[in-house]
Write a structure and sequence with these properties.
CATH superfamily of one domain: ANL, C-terminal domain
Protein name: Long chain acyl-CoA synthetase
Number of helices: 23
InterPro entries: AMP-binding_CS, AMP-dep_synth/lig_dom, ANL_N_sf
Oligomer: single chain
CATH class of one domain: Alpha Beta
GO cellular component, one term: membrane
Number of strands: 28
Pathway: Phytoalexin biosynthesis; 3,4',5-trihydroxystilbene biosynthesis; 3,4',5-trihydroxystilbene from trans-4-coumarate: step 1/2
Keywords: Membrane, Phenylpropanoid metabolism, Transmembrane, Transmembrane helix
Structural class: alpha/beta
Strand content: 15-25%
């Protein structure tokens, strides 16, 4: 199918996660045994809670800090009195961090990859072909072996003829070779341009030409895409490709690249191994990465990330995850071209963790590309740490909830009791966290759910977009592990705020990371000020070691959103609106660009409304649109196929295919009623609730260009594609 890791939202992939959870969850437990366990599990902590529960003391997680420059309320992490910039003395660059960590952990497992055993294709009833894979166990390279390969790659690059004064681009899905090539470039102080594997042709051409890349590193699947645009790429001289089992078929494309030197990755390693080149190492302020954001508007912008930015974020996050070290195993499957995954893997490198590579389409035993009877990546790896974007966690929650609903009866009641008991334990109203009750609920209900992700997850990182409080709590309970919700941008090298492991609250992004300060600046026009009660509010501005150097070849835009105060601290104006809680934790509540003023003067926060309406059982994705010349808003809704089709079947609605069903007035009315139901508890105003909606049958994916690789809406592209539908809703 050739789908990229950006295709995380493909419905069949993520909905099947829930399918494996309850298929066997209640097997092996006698009914009376379960009921007896439940009675003991509930009564013992209940009695203890009456005796022992006291008032919880609020932990202060951030404290005010005096700042210079523009007025605002600033906070820093309460853990340290000064900002953290390195994980340990001497690790001031990614090259130094990599070398020192590899030497320290030389014999420990580092990078793991699954071997392809069988590739097959199955044909669906509608004639479409789907790729199925039988994958083996993980095969590992040690830190010492990876360091040697990175050094060989660096030497091979030079021997191949790469000019060390020019940039290298990596245009590939996430894999071990990506990280090896990345670190190899730093051995010669070569800046790396990172490009999403799902990026469209125009954006690809723009990114490579703007940065004048001379060597392009890609996986073999990207050769066809490069062949199609090679005449438009002005500076490319070398192409290095990662070999796969079926690389031969993709190599035919390279015939169109006659002016380029096309070399397999393994040959570059051999070239370097046979003729070592002395390293040319970077310094802290050198540009490590030019990272092209997929951008919600126009062509992508290249953010210049220094070595100092990368190591500062890694150092800060290491202080947040408890007991991080060589016993941990991290499952890597998100795009490395996205700052969230790159920062996460940099943390794992610094801590000496093992990193096992997978993909969104092979993640679980029931994922789209996994052959029946084959383990998914999570089952094979049994990770202790994992990163996810909210869209994935929403899918997990929906899948589990759907299975519980389908089982009904005693199963549904038992899950409900277990869930409520664990919720009460986390929120501190009962002593459900006590070992006996926790153990019993794990055995009876939650153990099978956790097995979907390998059964050993102890901490999850979530970022890339806001995570709803309901989903955060659901995953927290079902997986039995804290979720650290992070907040950051490419412009802050992913480092801004991060939820601490012992914080049971939801909906917040935690205190500032120890590498930066965060201040709120009043935005009078939008009605957000630092004097607001009960919590101060304003635009979120990040300052410190994680704030990047600006946009490549775009000084005007850089000067617009980056400022340096009189003490030399660099600040980035995010455009997000946040509020500080009394304990110093930050909550993101709005975004300046998403606010539209209606005809009668009311402000509509599109992102806030969308987040609320996404909780409808019918909604797969939604874009709210507000025309300032009208007094109401409208919405484009991508419905969840199975849910809407089930409703239609039960209601006797006749239709020919899913697009036909989406056009039915009855279906539109049903979905709109569901939006009204979720809008009420979310306390949306009448003018915030879409007065009209249009059901869109096709999912929005990064490949379609309608969402970013981080799965955020591309509003301008959506408005352009559906301009007629939006116009008709206002007619």
């Amino acid at each position: 199918m050739g789908e990229s890791e950006g295709s995380i939202l493909n419905s069949p992939t993520m909905e099947k996660i829930g399918d494996s959870v309850y298929a066997s969850i209640f097997k092996g437990h006698g009914l009376y045994g379960i009921m007896g366990a439940v009675v003991v599990a509930v009564l013992v902590p209940l009695v203890l809670s009456v005796i022992l529960v006291g008032k919880k003391k609020v932990k202060q997680r951030a404290v005010p800090v005096q700042i210079s420059g523009e007025a605002g309320l600033a906070m820093r992490n309460a853990r340290s009195s000064k900002l953290v910039d390195v994980p340990w003395e001497g690790a001031t660059t990614m090259a130094a961090l990599f070398e020192q960590s590899c030497k320290k952990h030389s014999r420990e497992r580092f990078l793991g990859t699954r071997k392809l055993i069988i590739r097959d294709f199955v044909t669906a009833s509608d004639g479409r072909k789907f790729e199925k894979l039988h994958l083996g166990e993980y095969q590992w390279e040690t830190y010492g072996q990876v360091f040697d390969r990175a050094c060989n790659f660096a030497s091979g690059l030079v021997k191949l003829g790469h000019d060390v004064d020019t940039r290298v681009a990596i245009f590939s899905e996430t894999r071990a070779e990506w990280l090896i090539a990345f670190q190899g470039c730093f051995r010669q102080n070569i800046s790396v341009v990172t490009i999403y594997a799902s990026l469209g042709e125009d954006a690809l051409i723009h990114s490579l030409n703007e940065t004048q890349v001379s060597t392009l590193i890609c996986d073999s699947k990207q050769l066809k895409k490069l062949a199609a645009v090679c005449s438009s790429l002005k500076t490319i001289k070398n192409v290095i490709y990662f070999e796969d089992d079926d690389t031969g078929s993709d190599l035919n494309s390279s015939k169109n690249m006659s002016t380029w030197t096309v070399t397999p990755f393994s040959e570059v390693l051999k070239l370097g191994k046979g003729s070592a080149v002395h390293p040319n190492l970077p310094i802290k302020k050198d540009i490590a990465v030019v990272m092209y954001t997929s951008g919600s508007t126009g062509l992508p912008k290249g953010v210049m990330i220094t070595h100092g930015n990368l190591v500062a974020t890694a150092a800060a996050v290491m202080t947040v995850i408890p007991k991080l070290g060589s016993n941990d195993v991290y499952l890597a499957y998100l795009p490395l071209a996205h700052v969230f995954e790159l920062a996460a893997e940099s943390v794992m490198l610094a801590a000496g963790c093992a990193i096992g590579y997978g993909s969104a389409l092979t993640l679980t035993d029931t994922s789209n590309k996994i052959m029946k009877g084959t383990k998914g990546d999570a089952s094979a790896l049994e990770p202790t740490l994992m990163a996810a974007v909210p869209a994935i966690l929403d899918r997990v929650r929906d899948g589990v909830s759907k299975k519980v609903e389908e089982k009904g009866g005693f199963v549904k009641k038992l899950f409900s009791i277990g869930y409520k008991r664990r919720l009460a334990a986390i929120e501190g109203s009962w002593l459900g966290a006590w070992g006996l009750e926790r153990l019993l609920w794990d055995v009876v209900v939650f153990k099978k759910i956790r097995s979907v992700l390998g059964g050993k997850i102890r901490f999850m990182l979530c970022g890339g977009a806001p995570l709803s409080g309901d989903t955060q709590r659901f995953i927290n309970i079902c997986m039995g592990a804290p979720i650290g919700q992070g907040y950051g941008l490419t412009e802050t090298c992913a480092g801004a705020a991060f939820t601490e492991w012992d914080d049971p609250s939801v909906g917040r992004v935690g205190p500032p990371l120890p590498c930066c300060n965060i201040k709120l600046v009043s935005w009078e026009e939008g009605g957000y000020t630092t004097s607001d009660k009960p919590n101060p509010r304003g635009e979120v501005v990040v300052g410190g070691f994680s704030v990047t150097a600006g946009y490549f070849n775009n000084e005007a835009k850089t000067n617009e959103v980056y400022k340096v105060d009189e003490k030399g601290m660099r600040w980035f104006y995010t455009g997000d609106i946040g509020q500080f809680h009394p304990d110093g934790c930050l909550e993101i509540i709005d975004r300046k660009k998403d606010i539209v003023k209606l005809q009668h003067g009311e402000y509509v926060s599109l992102g806030k409304v969308e987040a609320a309406l996404m909780t409808s059982n019918y909604v797969d994705n939604i874009m709210v649109y507000a025309d300032p010349f009208h007094n109401y808003c409208v919405a484009l809704v991508v419905p969840i196929h199975q849910v809407l089709e089930k409703w239609a079947k039960e209601g006797g609605i006749k239709y020919t295919d899913f697009p036909d069903l989406c056009d039915k007035a009855e279906a539109v009315k049903e979905v709109q009623q569901s939006l009204l139901k979720v809008a009420k508890p979310a306390k949306l105003e009448k003018f915030e609730i879409p007065a009209k909606i249009k059901l869109v049958p096709d999912a929005w994916t990064p490949e379609s260009g309608l969402v970013t690789a981080a799965l955020k809406l591309k509003r301008e592209q959506l408005k352009a594609k559906f301009k007629d539908e939006l116009r008709n809703m206002y007619a």
